[in-house]
Amino acid sequence: MIHARGLVQTFTTGRGKQTKKVRAVDGVDLDIAEGEVVGFLGPNGAGKTTTLRMLTTLLRPTEGTATVNGYDVLTQPVHVRRSIGYVSQAGSTFSQALAGDEVSDHGQLYGMSRRDAVARGKELFNELQLDGLWDRMPKNMSGGQKRRLDIVMGLIHDPTLVFLDEPTTGLDPQARANLWEHIAKLRSDRGATVFLTTHYLDEADALSDRILIIDNGRIVAADTPENLKSQVSGDLVRLEFGDAAHVAGAATSLATIGTDVQIDGTAVSARVRGSGRVVPGLLRDLDSHGTILEGIEIVKPTLDDVFLTLTGRSLRDDTPAEDSSTDAIAGTEKEAV
Ligand SMILES: Nc1ncnc2c1ncn2[C@@H]1O[C@H](COP(=O)(O)OP(=O)(O)OP(=O)(O)O)[C@@H](O)[C@H]1O
């Protein structure tokens, strides 16, 4: 479905002596099979959108090759665009037209009859909880409604390969859950392949068959969520004591079964492999020494722990992106289809 080798994108920023080259994507290889849901994770500025823009032919790679749905992104861009659905971060609606007209015009650009485009559009409005908004201008919709309208536009022609760039950003929890269901159904009901970028780790975890993690323009990990999480050195075990006098002894005991022991006031924590097997023995040991425990928490590794293990940084620490170059892309995308 998607095969890429050595994809590179270099941007030049600044002027004169301030000119700088940014290697936004730095040699990305990808192989995504039919029917896979792949989550593309990485901190702000890691190169996710730039990779997506190259695969969807909105941006010509500086180096490297890619085929999407069997079409070459360099020599067959029109075929690529016609065969995919793409929901960009910036959205793709013009605010002056009526939402329903936008959707049916968009379907017709993909070769659908007006009648089919209206019928499918109304179905999608219903599925994405946009009932009653067919005759409303996007500019008079809420942020979440506009986002769902973008998704209708990306799915109107029933593509079998869908690129979603942060599809649930700006949605309330209920709309997010609804979209998760919809994405899961794209695969289960229609065998669609989905490539999605997201900042929500729980979303990537819940939806993806496979996760790709990109950092500084390079793929640093690619595996199932379970395999990635099993690479983290165990569950986080946190013991809380009523009396600070117990903490040092407990830390020594915890160090015999775990790593990365940390003391925080009256609590002590560590990473412990096979915690279900070894923690009961630790508790018996503490009890036999008269150590009174106030509480215990065992947290399974998350994808954030995976990122932290791989890069030494948390995905949650990232700051918002500085530029908003995507505004221009929405126009390009609209014209290009
Ligand atoms: N048109 C551009 N000109 C110059 N630099 C750019 C341009 N587009 C992106 N960049 C830079 O390339 C790098 C990768 O950006 P990209 O938008 O692909 O990251 P991202 O992982 O999608 O981030 P986010 O999660 O914030 O959307 C960043 O350093 C960004 O500032």
TrEMBL record:
Organism: Gordonia liuliyuniae
Stated name of the protein: ATP-binding cassette domain-containing protein
One Gene Ontology MF term: ATP binding
Family, similarity comment: Belongs to the ABC transporter superfamily. Drug exporter-1 (DrugE1) (TC 3.A.1.105) family.
Annotated InterPro entries: AAA+_ATPase (IPR003593), ABC_transporter-like_ATP-bd (IPR003439), ABC_transporter-like_CS (IPR017871), ABC_transporter_ATP-binding (IPR050763), DrrA (IPR005894), P-loop_NTPase (IPR027417)
Positions of the UniProt region annotated as Disordered: 315-337
Record's bilayer topology term: Peripheral membrane protein
Lineage summary: Bacteria, Bacillati, Actinomycetota, Actinomycetes, Mycobacteriales
Record flagged with keyword Nucleotide-binding: yes
Stretches assigned to the ABC transporter domain: 2-241
TM helices/strands, residue ranges: none
Record's subcellular location: Cell membrane
Pfam families attached to this UniProt entry: ABC_tran (PF00005)
Main location, first listed in the record: membrane
ATP-binding recorded as keyword: yes
Alphabetical keyword list: Antibiotic resistance, ATP-binding, Nucleotide-binding, Transport
